[in-house]
Structures are given as structure tokens and as C-alpha cells.
Amino acid sequence: MRAQGHGILSALPPEHRDKLLTFAREVAFPAADRIFDEGGGADHFWIIRSGLVALDVQEPGRGATVVETLGEGELLGWSWLFEPYRWHLGAQTRSAVEAYEFDAPQVRAAIDEDPAFGLAVTRCVAAVAIGRRLRAARTRLLDLYGPPATAQRHRSGGETP
Predict the structure, then answer these.
(1) Segment 57-100, tens digit of pLDDT
(2) CATH number for 128
(3) Which domain holds residue 89?
(4) How many angstroms separate the CA atoms of 87 and 105, rounded?
């Protein structure tokens, strides 16, 4: 299997990337396919090779709201790494997707057996995947609930409308 030149795989040291890829199998999902639902068991995870996947949250009375879209090289799912191993969001393909699929219990066992590998994978997931999602959520919240640009200029001593 050929590793991506960017994304989560490139953030891992080569020996740990190679070890992680020994647990991978190549899969494909058609467009509009539901990969997992919020609250379901997180027993797999994926690294997207091509295509787009929308992460969503179920809102009572409104249905699914997309909170982020992932693409090539990105990790789909990190709930597999932390108990209780339940998805916090749902995921649905926006286009046809090709990905590496990993059996989470198998990777967790390898993490427990090899502390250096475990530390590398955990740090990578935290820095690349979780950090990126938090930044994206912050940006989305600012877009939704931040003050209008004119109010910000006024507060900062800039022009007033």
C-alpha cells in the first residue's frame, strides 16, 4: 500500500506509518453512503485516500447538520481511540470515497503492545485530527455567532458604519 504524501500518514514517523499500514485494508464507499452514526460503536476508523466525507450531528427536529467535511489524507474517526469507543458524530460520503480501513481493536492492541508506536499514533491523532477539528469548530462557531464585521471594527477603534 502506498502512503499519502500529506495528511495523517505523513505526520507519523516512517516506521510507525509502515506499522499502522500493516493493519489497513483498502475499501470503497459509493456517494451518499452512511459510514457510521452518532452513538454507534467505534470499532473501525479510516484514512481517506480520495473523495469527501461529511461529519454531521443530529439535531432534534432538524435532522443531520454537517459540521465538517473531510478529504484526502484525513483521518475519519478518532472515537475508536478513547473509551467508551462510541461515535460523537455521524459520517456520510459526499462523493465516492476510497480509504484505508482499520480494525480499531486490532490497532489498540498493537498500541498497548508497543508503547513507542502507541505514543506516536496517539500524538498524531491528537495533533492532526483532533486539533484540526477543534480549529474547524471554532471557525464555524465564530462564523455563526461572532459579531458582524462592522461591530468588530467599531469596538477596535476602526471605522463606524
Answers:
(1) 888 888 888 888 999 999 999 899 999 999 999 999 999 999 99
(2) 2.60.120.10
(3) 8-142
(4) 15
